[in-house]
Amino acid sequence: MRWPYFVTWNGRETSPRGRDGAAKRPWNHRRTEHSKDRTPSDRPAAPSNRPDACPRIRPMENGESRGAKDTARTEAFSDGVFAFAITLLVLNLRDPSFQSPGVSSGVPLFEGLVREWQSFFALVTTFITILVMWLNHHNMFSHIDRVDRRLMLRNGILLLFVVLTPFTTAIVADHMTLSDAGTAAAVYSGNFLFIAISWNAVWRYCAKERRLLREDVTDAEARTITRQYLVAPLGSIVAIAISLVSGLASVTVVLAIAAFYAFTGSHGD
How many CA atoms lie within 13 A of 197 on its CB side? Predict the structure, then answer.
Protein backbone atom coordinates (compact mmCIF):
# COMPACT_ATOMS: atom_id res chain seq x y z
CA MET A 1 0.00 0.00 0.00
CA ARG A 2 1.41 3.34 -1.00
CA TRP A 3 1.04 6.02 1.63
CA PRO A 4 -0.14 9.37 0.41
CA TYR A 5 2.26 12.24 0.21
CA PHE A 6 1.53 15.74 1.38
CA VAL A 7 2.96 19.00 0.11
CA THR A 8 4.23 21.27 2.85
CA TRP A 9 4.32 25.09 2.80
CA ASN A 10 7.84 25.14 1.34
CA GLY A 11 6.90 22.90 -1.60
CA ARG A 12 8.63 19.71 -0.35
CA GLU A 13 6.79 16.39 -0.20
CA THR A 14 6.53 14.50 3.04
CA SER A 15 4.87 11.32 4.20
CA PRO A 16 3.32 10.41 7.54
CA ARG A 17 5.48 7.20 7.49
CA GLY A 18 9.17 6.67 7.15
CA ARG A 19 11.05 4.61 4.60
CA ASP A 20 10.57 1.45 6.60
CA GLY A 21 6.83 1.95 6.74
CA ALA A 22 6.76 2.76 10.42
CA ALA A 23 4.72 5.71 11.55
CA LYS A 24 6.74 8.80 12.26
CA ARG A 25 6.62 10.48 15.60
CA PRO A 26 5.11 13.91 15.67
CA TRP A 27 7.55 16.75 15.43
CA ASN A 28 6.79 17.92 18.94
CA HIS A 29 7.16 14.57 20.70
CA ARG A 30 9.98 15.88 22.90
CA ARG A 31 7.98 17.95 25.32
CA THR A 32 8.76 18.64 28.92
CA GLU A 33 6.37 17.87 31.71
CA HIS A 34 5.66 21.56 32.09
CA SER A 35 4.80 21.99 28.44
CA LYS A 36 2.44 19.01 28.51
CA ASP A 37 0.25 20.71 31.08
CA ARG A 38 -0.03 23.88 29.04
CA THR A 39 -2.79 24.33 26.55
CA PRO A 40 -2.04 25.71 23.09
CA SER A 41 -3.63 29.02 24.01
CA ASP A 42 -1.24 29.43 26.98
CA ARG A 43 1.89 28.87 24.95
CA PRO A 44 3.68 31.97 23.68
CA ALA A 45 3.48 32.45 19.95
CA ALA A 46 6.78 31.93 18.19
CA PRO A 47 8.08 34.87 16.20
CA SER A 48 7.59 34.49 12.49
CA ASN A 49 9.58 35.98 9.64
CA ARG A 50 7.03 34.98 7.07
CA PRO A 51 5.83 37.85 4.86
CA ASP A 52 2.20 36.96 5.52
CA ALA A 53 2.63 36.95 9.32
CA CYS A 54 0.47 39.44 11.17
CA PRO A 55 2.47 42.24 12.84
CA ARG A 56 2.17 42.57 16.59
CA ILE A 57 0.21 45.61 17.70
CA ARG A 58 1.85 47.66 20.43
CA PRO A 59 -0.39 48.96 23.21
CA MET A 60 -1.34 52.59 22.98
CA GLU A 61 0.10 55.01 25.53
CA ASN A 62 -2.27 56.25 28.14
CA GLY A 63 -2.91 59.90 28.91
CA GLU A 64 -0.60 59.92 31.92
CA SER A 65 2.47 58.84 29.93
CA ARG A 66 1.70 61.36 27.21
CA GLY A 67 1.38 64.09 29.82
CA ALA A 68 4.76 63.19 31.30
CA LYS A 69 6.38 63.46 27.89
CA ASP A 70 4.73 66.80 27.27
CA THR A 71 6.13 68.09 30.57
CA ALA A 72 9.62 66.97 29.64
CA ARG A 73 9.44 68.67 26.24
CA THR A 74 8.17 71.91 27.77
CA GLU A 75 10.98 71.91 30.31
CA ALA A 76 13.59 71.15 27.65
CA PHE A 77 12.35 73.99 25.46
CA SER A 78 12.35 76.38 28.42
CA ASP A 79 15.88 75.34 29.38
CA GLY A 80 17.05 76.21 25.89
CA VAL A 81 15.49 79.66 26.07
CA PHE A 82 17.07 80.39 29.45
CA ALA A 83 20.46 79.25 28.17
CA PHE A 84 20.10 81.40 25.05
CA ALA A 85 19.19 84.47 27.12
CA ILE A 86 22.22 84.03 29.38
CA THR A 87 24.50 83.60 26.38
CA LEU A 88 23.26 86.83 24.80
CA LEU A 89 24.38 88.79 27.87
CA VAL A 90 28.02 88.38 26.93
CA LEU A 91 27.42 90.06 23.57
CA ASN A 92 26.96 93.37 25.38
CA LEU A 93 30.60 93.37 26.52
CA ARG A 94 33.26 95.01 24.38
CA ASP A 95 36.91 95.93 24.55
CA PRO A 96 36.96 99.46 26.04
CA SER A 97 40.38 100.25 24.52
CA PHE A 98 38.91 100.21 20.99
CA GLN A 99 36.09 102.36 19.67
CA SER A 100 35.66 99.97 16.74
CA PRO A 101 37.65 97.02 15.37
CA GLY A 102 41.12 98.32 14.59
CA VAL A 103 40.44 101.87 15.85
CA SER A 104 41.95 102.63 19.26
CA SER A 105 40.08 104.82 21.71
CA GLY A 106 43.29 106.14 23.31
CA VAL A 107 42.20 104.89 26.73
CA PRO A 108 44.40 102.37 28.59
CA LEU A 109 42.82 98.95 29.01
CA PHE A 110 42.72 99.04 32.82
CA GLU A 111 41.14 102.47 32.88
CA GLY A 112 38.64 101.42 30.25
CA LEU A 113 37.64 98.35 32.24
CA VAL A 114 37.09 100.50 35.33
CA ARG A 115 34.87 102.80 33.33
CA GLU A 116 32.79 99.81 32.19
CA TRP A 117 31.87 98.87 35.75
CA GLN A 118 28.20 99.54 35.10
CA SER A 119 28.19 97.00 32.27
CA PHE A 120 29.72 94.33 34.49
CA PHE A 121 27.32 95.16 37.32
CA ALA A 122 24.29 94.90 35.06
CA LEU A 123 25.58 91.68 33.52
CA VAL A 124 26.23 90.01 36.88
CA THR A 125 22.83 91.12 38.19
CA THR A 126 20.98 89.80 35.16
CA PHE A 127 23.00 86.60 35.01
CA ILE A 128 22.21 85.80 38.64
CA THR A 129 18.56 86.70 38.12
CA ILE A 130 18.16 84.47 35.04
CA LEU A 131 20.03 81.67 36.78
CA VAL A 132 17.70 81.84 39.77
CA MET A 133 14.68 81.98 37.45
CA TRP A 134 15.91 78.85 35.68
CA LEU A 135 16.36 77.02 38.98
CA ASN A 136 12.91 78.00 40.19
CA HIS A 137 11.34 77.19 36.84
CA HIS A 138 12.72 73.68 37.19
CA ASN A 139 11.44 73.46 40.77
CA MET A 140 8.02 74.76 39.77
CA PHE A 141 7.61 72.14 37.06
CA SER A 142 8.61 69.43 39.53
CA HIS A 143 5.24 70.16 41.18
CA ILE A 144 3.35 69.98 37.87
CA ASP A 145 2.11 66.61 36.69
CA ARG A 146 1.21 67.39 33.08
CA VAL A 147 0.76 70.29 30.68
CA ASP A 148 -1.95 71.45 28.29
CA ARG A 149 -2.14 74.04 25.54
CA ARG A 150 -3.11 76.87 27.87
CA LEU A 151 -0.17 76.18 30.16
CA MET A 152 2.22 76.04 27.21
CA LEU A 153 0.87 79.39 25.99
CA ARG A 154 1.39 80.99 29.40
CA ASN A 155 4.87 79.50 29.62
CA GLY A 156 5.68 80.87 26.17
CA ILE A 157 4.66 84.38 27.21
CA LEU A 158 6.93 84.04 30.24
CA LEU A 159 9.85 83.05 28.01
CA LEU A 160 9.16 86.05 25.76
CA PHE A 161 10.08 88.44 28.57
CA VAL A 162 13.01 86.23 29.56
CA VAL A 163 14.66 86.70 26.16
CA LEU A 164 14.13 90.46 26.47
CA THR A 165 16.41 90.66 29.51
CA PRO A 166 19.66 90.97 27.44
CA PHE A 167 18.17 93.97 25.65
CA THR A 168 17.04 95.70 28.85
CA THR A 169 20.40 94.86 30.43
CA ALA A 170 22.21 96.59 27.57
CA ILE A 171 20.00 99.67 28.02
CA VAL A 172 20.60 99.99 31.74
CA ALA A 173 24.35 99.34 31.32
CA ASP A 174 24.74 102.09 28.70
CA HIS A 175 22.71 104.68 30.63
CA MET A 176 23.66 103.87 34.22
CA THR A 177 25.90 106.95 34.57
CA LEU A 178 23.85 109.28 32.37
CA SER A 179 21.05 111.64 33.22
CA ASP A 180 18.38 109.22 31.96
CA ALA A 181 19.58 106.36 34.17
CA GLY A 182 16.22 106.37 35.96
CA THR A 183 14.35 105.73 32.72
CA ALA A 184 16.71 102.91 31.80
CA ALA A 185 16.32 101.35 35.25
CA ALA A 186 12.52 101.64 34.98
CA VAL A 187 12.60 99.73 31.69
CA TYR A 188 14.91 97.15 33.26
CA SER A 189 12.71 96.68 36.34
CA GLY A 190 9.53 96.82 34.26
CA ASN A 191 10.64 93.81 32.24
CA PHE A 192 11.12 91.84 35.45
CA LEU A 193 7.67 92.96 36.53
CA PHE A 194 6.18 91.37 33.42
CA ILE A 195 8.23 88.25 34.09
CA ALA A 196 6.82 88.08 37.62
CA ILE A 197 3.24 88.55 36.38
CA SER A 198 3.68 85.85 33.74
CA TRP A 199 5.28 83.55 36.28
CA ASN A 200 2.34 83.92 38.65
CA ALA A 201 -0.05 83.30 35.75
CA VAL A 202 1.67 79.98 35.01
CA TRP A 203 1.66 78.80 38.62
CA ARG A 204 -1.85 79.96 39.51
CA TYR A 205 -3.26 78.27 36.41
CA CYS A 206 -1.72 74.98 37.52
CA ALA A 207 -2.59 75.36 41.21
CA LYS A 208 -6.21 76.51 40.78
CA GLU A 209 -8.38 73.61 41.97
CA ARG A 210 -5.21 71.48 41.63
CA ARG A 211 -5.75 71.49 37.87
CA LEU A 212 -2.29 70.27 36.85
CA LEU A 213 -0.51 69.62 40.14
CA ARG A 214 1.02 66.32 41.14
CA GLU A 215 -0.87 64.18 43.61
CA ASP A 216 1.94 64.32 46.19
CA VAL A 217 1.84 68.15 46.35
CA THR A 218 -0.14 69.16 49.43
CA ASP A 219 -2.51 72.11 49.55
CA ALA A 220 -0.38 73.77 52.23
CA GLU A 221 2.70 73.50 50.04
CA ALA A 222 0.85 74.98 47.07
CA ARG A 223 -0.39 77.92 49.16
CA THR A 224 3.13 78.58 50.47
CA ILE A 225 4.55 78.70 46.94
CA THR A 226 1.74 81.02 45.85
CA ARG A 227 2.60 83.45 48.66
CA GLN A 228 6.29 83.31 47.79
CA TYR A 229 5.59 84.21 44.18
CA LEU A 230 3.93 87.45 45.28
CA VAL A 231 7.30 88.86 46.34
CA ALA A 232 8.53 89.25 42.75
CA PRO A 233 5.77 91.53 41.38
CA LEU A 234 5.65 93.62 44.56
CA GLY A 235 9.44 93.94 44.62
CA SER A 236 9.51 94.91 40.94
CA ILE A 237 6.99 97.66 41.58
CA VAL A 238 9.23 98.96 44.37
CA ALA A 239 12.22 98.85 42.00
CA ILE A 240 10.32 100.89 39.41
CA ALA A 241 9.41 103.47 42.03
CA ILE A 242 13.02 103.69 43.24
CA SER A 243 14.23 104.18 39.64
CA LEU A 244 12.71 107.66 39.75
CA VAL A 245 15.33 108.52 42.37
CA SER A 246 18.32 106.28 41.62
CA GLY A 247 18.86 103.89 38.74
CA LEU A 248 21.63 102.02 40.56
CA ALA A 249 19.42 101.46 43.63
CA SER A 250 16.63 100.16 41.40
CA VAL A 251 18.91 97.53 39.86
CA THR A 252 20.09 96.59 43.35
CA VAL A 253 16.48 95.86 44.36
CA VAL A 254 16.18 93.47 41.41
CA LEU A 255 19.32 91.70 42.63
CA ALA A 256 17.83 91.46 46.14
CA ILE A 257 14.69 89.83 44.71
CA ALA A 258 16.84 87.25 42.95
CA ALA A 259 18.69 86.56 46.21
CA PHE A 260 15.36 85.97 47.97
CA TYR A 261 14.25 83.35 45.45
CA ALA A 262 17.67 81.74 45.45
CA PHE A 263 16.87 80.43 48.93
CA THR A 264 13.08 80.24 49.15
CA GLY A 265 11.64 80.01 45.65
CA SER A 266 9.29 77.07 44.83
CA HIS A 267 9.72 75.43 48.20
CA GLY A 268 6.74 74.69 50.37
CA ASP A 269 6.46 73.99 54.07
Answer: 11
